[in-house]
Task: structure prediction
Amino acid sequence: MFNRFTKAFFTRVFSPIARLLLSWGVSPDVVTLVGTVGVCAGALIFFPQGELFWGVMVITAFVFSDIIDGTMARMSGRSSVWGAYLDSTLDRFADGAIFAGLVLYYAGHEGDDQLMASLALAVLVLGYLVSYSRARAEGLGMQANVGVAERSERLVFTLIATGFVGIGVTHYLLMAVLAILAVLSVVTIFQRILMVRRQALAREAAGQGLI
Result:
């Protein structure tokens, strides 16, 4: 949902940077790797120390590499199955680092706030299930590209709320965001399950079976 409205805009914004990096001989894969390392460092170094605002700033600076590398791949004609696989796999590392950083912060720095740590962990686990439910469906030759809480929504709203908490806004803001994202993630998982079920039943009715 978020992707549809913003990807085209940010692609135009970062196209000059992508073009410059290509002129320097930088490959899209390098940008993907550097962006992932930057996001992981921002989350796992700053968040556990309670530096939520600066952690969000570092993460934001690197998270746009996800758009830059794709733009570079298209400009250079290097779009490939390998690039898509690497990008998707490293996205999971970045997601894990962001929510793990919040878990570490609330489990330690914030006086063992078990509720907040549990909510961050729940969104992390459910986010992986959201991604898996789509990947598994596509592996079986079906589609599961529906849902109200995809990766972009989870990251954007979590980072915005975390940034505000970092400048003194009440932790209840992040608590509410994480709770809502957890619920919407469950809804998304069931939406995808039902979508795949309909396709599987239609396939069985047509006598095709599973791939």
